[in-house]
Design goal:
The protein has 3 domains: 41 residues, no CATH class; 152 residues; 98 residues, Carboxypeptidase-like, regulatory domain (Immunoglobulin-like, Sandwich). The protein has 3 helices and 19 strands. The protein has a 5-stranded mixed sheet with strand order 6-3-9-10-11. A hairpin with a 4-residue loop joins strand 9 and strand 10. The longest helix is centred in the first third of the chain and has 10 residues.
């Protein structure tokens, strides 16, 4: 393969030429002196990370950087993620490099103040001033093992005052973490217990920005259906790939966090941070196709067809 610069070509040289094989051959012929690339696999690879909070009730934040032996480089800090929310970010934008060999990670968990109120109905979703779980791990394998399109970091609850974090699940990086016995448990998860004293007074970051989840419920003729109930659920995890069916589910969608009713045009909307959510529709007067839809905001085009019962 050759990497070529076409900016110096005279456009008249290919006048009237369409994107055919002949034209491409002519274009390459004009590209004398292109820089050679031995193998496309040697081209630089930029990867991303995705941090997901699969707790049912607590809020999570992540700090991440390329491993730094001098401990002088700052961490990139995510916003505070509500249950079910995900933060996706390119490494090059967050850390200034496309694919770090190893990573330093810090995770923080905060409890809601109004825990007796459904999350989506809790105005402001206020959390405590200090973390209930906070920990750090350094020099975690990453792209030095193999570049991943997305390096996943998933946090969920175990018991009160504990969090479990799974890194790069089911990838060669996961295999490398197991091979070096970085975490001494069968699931190779980072189990964070309590609060590291150096993080005891760390205040929560700002909440992640909300995005729309919106759509319409319509009859077959396009008429909007008013008064249809719409519930919103978030994803959760309680165990990692547990093969014991007697204590299912290990991961699913939890109790509704909020609800609304369609207006006169059949329209509905919610505002939640990016992540995985489930919409469920209910009514005594109509049935739905489909009655359940899994979505990720931002999305404004959810369409459900209603049929009179």
């Amino acid at each position: 393969m050759r990497r070529c610069r076409f900016g110096q070509f005279r456009t008249g040289a290919l006048s009237g030429c369409s994107l055919s094989a002949v034209c491409m051959a002519a274009l390459l012929a004009l590209a004398g002196g292109c820089d050679a690339v031995d193998n496309i696999a040697n081209l630089p690879i930029e990867t991303s990370f995705a941090f997901t909070n699969f707790s049912k009730t607590t809020y999570a934040a992540l700090r991440i950087r390329a491993h730094d032996e001098t401990d002088s480089e700052p961490y990139y800090r995510t916003e505070l993620l509500a249950p079910g929310a995900t933060k996706r970010q390119r490494f090059v934008d967050a850390l200034g490099e496309g694919c770090p060999d190893t990573l330093d990670l810090q995770v923080f968990i905060y409890e809601r103040v109004n825990s007796d109120v459904p999350i989506g109905l809790d105005d402001g979703e206020v959390v405590g001033a200090t973390p209930t779980v906070a920990g750090e791990i350094l020099d975690v394998p990453a792209c030095g093992v193999q570049p991943l399109e997305t390096y996943t970091i998933v946090s969920w609850d175990t018991e009160s005052g504990q969090s479990r974090v799974k890194l790069a699940q089911d990838t060669p990086v996961d295999a490398a973490i197991r091979a070096i016995n970085l975490f001494e448990n069968a699931d190779a998860t980072w189990d964070v217990d309590g609060v590291d004293p150096k993080f005891a007074n760390d205040a929560p970051p700002e909440h992640a920005a909300f995005e729309p989840i919106a759509g319409q419920v319509l009859l077959a003729d396009g008429t909007g259906v008013e008064g249809v109930g719409v519930m919103l659920r978030t994803r959760f995890r309680v165990r990692l790939n547990d093969n014991d069916p007697s204590n299912d589910p290990d991961a699913d969608f939890g109790d509704p966090i909020t609800f609304t009713f369609t207006d006169a045009d059949g329209a509905f909307s919610f505002e939640r941070p990016p992540g995985g959510y489930r919409l469920e529709f209910f009514s005594d007067d109509v049935a739905f196709r489909p009655a359940i839809i899994d979505v990720e905001p931002p999305i404004n085009s959810v369409l459900v067809v209603a049929e009179p019962i």
